[in-house]
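Attaching the record inline, Q. Sequence:
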Amino acid sequence: MQRRGITALFLALLAMQPARAEFPDRPLTLINPYATGSQTDAVARALAESLAQSLGQPVVVVNREGGSGVVGLRALMASAPDGLTLAFSPMVPLAIQPHLVRNTGLGPEAVAPICNVTENILGVMVRADSPFRSLPQLAAAARQRGLTYGSPGPNSAPAIGVARLQKAAGGEYIHAPFRSDSAALLEVKAGRLDFAAIVVASGVPMARAGETRLLGTFSLRRHPEFPDVPTAREQGIDAVELSAAGLYAPRTTPEPVLARLEAACATALTSEGLRNVALRWAVLPEYLGRAAFARRIAEDYASHGRVLRELGVEPQ
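Structure, as predicted:
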């Protein structure tokens, strides 16, 4: 009788406990580790709106720029692993920067990948009146004299694309690093650089205005804005440099929370808002779930380790 009384009391106390709220029960924060007004920022804000619709909570974008994405991803690592703080970023701080900067703490295992969102196709753009009509022509000229080019930074993904071009086709390429694609393109437009290695989407406005031309991409596919421009590989140059951007959570976020976020991300990529932003910025939506995205990051990390060692780059 006493045991039944204790059991009844326990059940009564349990019934009085508040039910565990279903995730998410509070607003979420989405870290953008790049500048306000950038392509990454625009996609991050569209993604945040779409995630908010799926999750039933506001998703607030905060900018934590610096260190080619390292500052923002380190902020994510320091956040509580409850799924309420996320980051949207290209893979650069996870797959490239750890090979360049010591003690970032970043790499494929530093965060929990949720989903791949876009591919940022990289390529080579010249002034509209440039004599170069293809990547082989450009490489042939570089074998005769050094060509100058701009990129969004030393050892950025576009600059590594040029390194792959150099390895595959030879030539001398004199690098002028800038803080953005647009700054490099302005120098090309002014005739002070032979070409720019960029995220192709950044060059769409100038190309549409007839000021620049795309010679080729470092992707495995053509950019839909330039369907007649073949990839480097299609032009006989085995120079592939892929650049993807995705959604991440802190590494020890619980499995059920990650599954919920993965489903919300898959839904977000079908939203009209995200599709419209992707179209406006000429980026390609590309969904990969957690497992496939994690494999892509690991492969990208290993590939960049090899190419940077071949270039003699040591972490500083």
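The longest strand covers residues 111-119. Residues 6-19 have pLDDT under 50 and may be disordered.

More tomorrow.
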